[in-house]
Amino acid sequence: MLPWLHEYGGTLLVSVLLLSGLAAIAAKLLRDRKRGQSSCGCGCGNCPMAEACHPGKKNEP
Question: What is the pTM of this model?
């Protein structure tokens, strides 16, 4: 087991770091969506896709 870990340890470490980063991003996006915040960070007044992000709300200029 030790030679295998020595050979693939760097790959495993990088993979774990990337997966944890993706999980953190997904959790943040889900948390923001539950709070009703937009993922783009700007107002939706002039956005043609406002109905897709916020169904039921009118697009107010």
Answer: 0.59
